[in-house]
Amino acid sequence: MERASVSVVIPTFNRASIVGEAVASALAQTHEPADVVVVDDGSTDDTASALDAYRGRILYVRQQNAGPAAARNTGIRHTKSRYVAFLDSDDLWAPEKLRAQMSLFASDPSLAVVSCLARYVAFDGRTLAETGPPQDTLRAGDRTGLRRLLLGNTVSGGSSAVVRRECLDDVGVFDEELWGVEDWDMWLRVAKKYSIGFVNQPLTIMRSGAANLSATANVATMLANELRLLDKHFADGSLGFGWYDRGMAISERYGRAAWAYYATGHPRQARRCLARALANNPVHFLSQRAFPGLFARTLIGQRSLATLRRVLGSRSAARRSS
């Protein structure tokens, strides 16, 4: 069987110190990519020189700064393979990532996208979060899978996905008006019409630092774009969900933003987000046990809450012994 060709698109902006690591992990794949396109989104550092060692093995494209979605789209236009894989310049791949994903494509021709699990680490190698749970194939238009995808990006970040070009030709490229959630928007568009498969192995290493798009300093901007994304997908009715599910999805976004605010020392903003989460869908809010618990912390403080729990616990113990 002829080996399917896959192109790799690596958008980058001011990552001179680490972009070479991402490129090296793409070039080291056991399923060798047909080409690797690095799109420099108007970097002001020494990115071009940092890539000198890879000239002849990659295509380097420079453009004026327009954001990660625009950089990915530029990369897509410079590729010709039947499959396109995306790798952010601060992330890495395990050597067998593409081989495992292309094997799944070969075994299930109905799949338009194949993702994989990821490890979340700091740049110094510290684990930041556990690998997410295994994912079942999300079949085209499946309401249960779509609902899960509405509540959170279950397909994972762009660095984990490989996409059939025919799918991109049909649903369109990344939405350049959405900041930080353009990959989630893409998977929602795909899932309405196509199936998405998963290699349930952590083959992507996603690294986080203060300058990442996912940094909590950007919570307000991320939340605004997440709400814009939901408005976009509910506006045309193509999801097939009504007001209850819309409220549930919005409640989830406010609740997650509250956690980010609280983790960065902003309990007042966290409390405001939790109030919005409660207002948009009280049932969903109360079903997520972490949200009411966080609300209590923002109202009375972590130390006071611990004291209250000890007092209530001691009173309960006293009643049981009497």
Portion of residues in beta strands equals: 15-25%
Question: What Rg do the Cα atoms give?
Answer: 22 Å
Largest sheet: 9 strands, mixed
Shape, principal axes of CA atoms: globular
Distance between the termini: 77 Å
Tally of extended strands? Answer: 9
Query: How does the helix and strand content classify structurally?
Result: alpha/beta
Topology (elements, then pairings):
Layout: E1 6-12, H1 19-27, E2 35-41, H2 47-50, E3 59-63, H3 68-77, E4 83-86, E5 92-93, H4 97-107, E6 111-122, E7 127-129, H5 143-151, E8 162-164, H6 165-171, H7 182-191, E9 195-208, H8 219-235, H9 243-263, H10 267-280, H11 282-287, H12 290-300, H13 302-321
Helix pairs in contact: 5-7, 8-9, 9-10, 10-12, 12-13
Description:
There is one protein chain. 46% of the residues lie in helices and 18% in strands. The model is unreliable at 210-215 (pLDDT under 50). It starts with 5 loop residues before the first strand and ends with a helix. The longest helix has 21 residues, at 243-263. It has helices spanning 19-27, 47-50, 68-77, 97-107, 143-151, 165-171, 182-191, 219-235, 243-263, 267-280, 282-287, 290-300, 302-321, and strands at residues 6-12, 35-41, 59-63, 83-86, 92-93, 111-122, 127-129, 162-164, 195-208. The protein has 13 helices and nine strands. The protein is an alpha/beta fold.
